[in-house]
Design brief:
heterodimer; A: Mth169, Chain: A; 3-stranded antiparallel β-sheet; 3 strands; B: alpha/beta; Rossmann fold; 9-stranded mixed β-sheet; two-stranded antiparallel ribbon; 11 strands
């Protein structure tokens, strides 16, 4: 069964205040890095999933993202999916 | 009359709720482990405060999938009284029993202090013992209590009488000064303040008592 690597990027929706991001932005100027005007903190969730094909893997991770990894009331998410290449070396002898 | 108090790994106000209900008010109370499914004989269910499952991912996000909550959702759908306090309120929003979400306090601090509130009992059975626009004081203790929803959602809830508890001096940046909400039927109440910490004369005010005694009819 093919294996896929998924990275789900979860971010607060633009309308939702991000006080932690704002505090981090304030710290960036204390570090001496000027010009940072907008800093928003999200999460990246990485997972591997086995599925018969890429479409099935994608729909499973989309369900997971919508129902568990992100709360659509306050968060948006993006999915990056790629098949994990199976090399000859990793095949059973 | 008997109250079930759900215990998740990481709950830390479950004993306080039992002390308030049974210890102070004499209402029989039973703990429900998060893997249980038997709500038999219970007249009301409380989702207590704390950090269920470590609050990993988001507050209440993992708890939402606990076996006991499937039964609590069915119980609520039958009109059973359900009270979510603090982390329990966060679970109710994650479950979709109440709209919106609770997010990080606007000033980032964990706030633990008495808070002045205005009650608008409306159709909420849990608040039937309070007067219209009554001012009460309950403690809050949370880092993620900033209520957030779309303006249209808030407006609809205002119209429907669902915004039943408001902060008089908004401590956390909640939209509409929302401290507590009920569902349209009035049997499900979620609130960030802790009524169970205001039931014992030895530890402060008694403004939380009527929330529990409302169940006695």
């Amino acid at each position: 069964m093919p294996r896929f690597h998924a990275r789900v990027l979860v971010s607060l929706r633009p309308s939702v205040l991000d006080p932690a991001g704002e505090a981090t932005r304030a710290a960036s100027s204390r570090l001496g890095v000027e010009g940072v005007s907008r800093l928003r903190i999200g999460k990246a969730v990485e997972l591997e999933i086995e599925a018969p094909d890429a479409d099935t893997a994608r729909s499973r991770v989309e369900l997971l993202s919508d129902r568990l990894l992100a709360n659509p009331v306050i968060e948006n998410w993006e999915l990056e999916l790629s098949e994990i290449a199976t090399t000859n070396a990793s095949l059973p002898a | 009359m008997s109250i079930g108090v759900v215990v998740f790994p990481g709950s830390n106000c479950d004993r306080d709720v039992a002390w308030a209900a049974q210890g102070c008010l004499g209402i029989p109370t039973r703990f429900l482990w998060h893997e249980e499914r038997d709500l038999g004989g219970l007249d009301a269910v409380v989702l207590p405060g704390g950090f269920s499952y470590g609050d990993y991912l988001r507050c209440g996000a993992i708890a939402r999938f606990a076996p006991v909550l499937e039964e609590v959702v069915a119980f609520a759908a039958r009109g059973g009284p359900v009270l979510g306090i603090c982390n329990g309120f966060q679970m109710l929003t994650e479950l979709g029993l109440l709209p919106g979400a609770l997010t990080r306090n606007s000033r980032l601090h964990f706030i633990c202090e008495p808070t002045a509130l205005t009650v608008r009992p409306s159709q909420c059975g849990w608040l039937s013992g309070y007067g219209e626009a009554e001012e009460i004081e309950l403690p809050i203790a949370h880092g993620e209590g900033r209520y957030q929803c779309e303006p249209a959602t808030l407006e609809a809830m205002e119209q429907a009488g669902q915004v039943v508890l408001r902060y008089r001096a908004n401590p956390n940046g909640s939209v509409g000064d929302v401290a507590g909400l009920c569902n349209p039927a009035g049997n499900v109440l979620g609130l960030m303040p802790h009524p169970e910490r205001a039931c014992d004369p030895r530890t402060g005010g008694l403004d939380g008592q009527r929330l529990f005694t409302s169940l006695l009819g």
